[in-house]
Structures are given as structure tokens and as C-alpha cells.
Amino acid sequence: MQKKVFKVSQEDAGMRLDKYLADKLSDLISRSGIRKLIDNGLILIDGLQVKPRHILKADEEVRVSIEPKDNRVLLPEDIKLDIVYEDDYLAVIDKPAGLTVHPPSNGIGHTMVNALLFHIDKLSDIAGPLKPGIVHRLDKDTSGLMVIAKDNKTHQKLTLQFKERIVLREYIAVVLGIVEFDEGVINVPIGRSASLRLKRVVDLNSGKDAITNYNVLKRYKNKTLIRLSLKTGRTHQIRVHLKHINHPIMGDSYYGVKADVSRQMLHAVKLGFNHPVSGEFEVFESKVPDDMRTYIESL
Questions:
Q1: Angle formed at CA 134 by CA 67 and CA 190, multiple of 5 degrees
Q2: I want to staple 225 with a disulfide (CB 3.0 to 4.6 A). Which of 119, 160, 199, 217 is the partner?
Q3: 161: pLDDT strictly greater than 90
Q4: Is residue 70 flagged as an active site residue?
């Protein structure tokens, strides 16, 4: 990883951090790339994580860690995909549990992206070479609906809908314990863990706003089946929020309870958005997968 350290001069004091670094690193990375580094905790001011709009002060130390360019090449793989809808602009995929959406840092094969390259002729490339078509993601062990973009214009319009929080996203989950209230809202900010870069935690000081609505579908002896809808879409949001209210997802070994099930009991059951071309609000629904249905019936 390439490291850069700058000392803010009197002349540069008062500049926004992202603008300052866009000038300093113009030959290495774009301004949007700089914002991603800031969001990922790879740009620090005097050792602390700040926002892109941070106003610099004289003598502050700006430390930048730039990840090396990824030259991996993705290949199509004949992995079965459940394509529930497809047209010239997008596709809706019902992702199975256990399938990673895009390549992690240590691999390039057997992901949903490899499957998309095999089954779909064209995909947007605005998210980068390792994420063709990927507008949003689900965790590896979460099953359910995702929308895929076939061109950059469609990708941008879908991304804007996620940003403006008009996309309908509903999930069902089995959680530990008896959820007391029939419905509720979990509204606590989420940030990156200080000790584990990939983990997210409730962060009341510098986390990003995160809102999850829930309602109880059925209570069992020591577990609850709930439906959730997302107002925001932070990484691991549902998993972190449910852990926060002491009802972690069954099978979620990272945030929840591994216990008596092979994977986390979380399924994206409904997805709705304005079609980028027709403008019609399209809603897609997914049946509960066999493994999850069998587990629920066993309760």
C-alpha cells in the first residue's frame, strides 16, 4: 500500500480536505476515489478519521494510504443464477446464500459477478472492473433480490434512487429471543470498527445515520420471525442493528449466533424501484429459500 504524508501549510489552510488532496494527488487518484479513501478510513488527519468536507488547519498532518491498482481479470463462470426479471437495461437476481457478490481482495473466482459475465451479455462498468453491473450488494450468507445494471446510464439512475432512499427493500429474519414490541424503528448511526476494518459497529459520535424499521411476524419459544425494511443501506446495517437491540440474527457468526443453523437467517424478500426508462415503480418478490423455510418450520 502506497503511503503519502502532507503537512498543511498556512497557504492551504481553509481548504476542504477532498479538494486539497485532489490537487496533491491528481496524478494518482480521482476526487471520487479520494472520497472513498476517506470513507474507508484510509485518509487521516492527525491520526483521526474525518469527513471529505473537513476544513484544513495549518500544521495538520494528512496521512493517505492508497491501495495499489487491482489488475485482476475476471472470467465468466457457468454458475447457476435465478434471473427473475431481465430487459435491455437491467436484471433482477435472486441470489442464493453462500455466493459472494463480487471478488474479495484475495480472489477473483466463483462470485456472482463471474456468473453475471457468463449469463448476461453486457454490464455497466461504472463501479469498477471487479464489480460490473453491481449497483448494491448483499452479504455472502444473505439470500434474496438484487438489481443489476446493464449500462452506465441505468446504473447511475438506480444508484441515485438508493441515495435518495426511494428504493423499497424488505427482508425477513429469524432472531434470537422474544422481540417485545410488535413493531419499531432502530435509528442509530453505524461506523467502521476501530480494530477490525471489515466490521461495522454502532458509532454515536462519527457514524453515518442508519434507520431500520421492523415488525414481528411470529414469536416462538426463544426466537422471533421478523420483517424489516431499510430506510438507509449501510454495510451490515440489519445485522448490526439487530445485535444492538440484543436480538442478533440466528446463524450470523460475525454479529449474531451461530448456534443451530448453517447460515444467517436473513433473506431479501422484496425489492422495488422506479424503472430507469419506463419510470414505472416495479416491485419484485422472492419466496423464502428451502433451507430457511425448513428452519422456520422446525421452530
A1: 65
A2: 217
A3: yes
A4: no
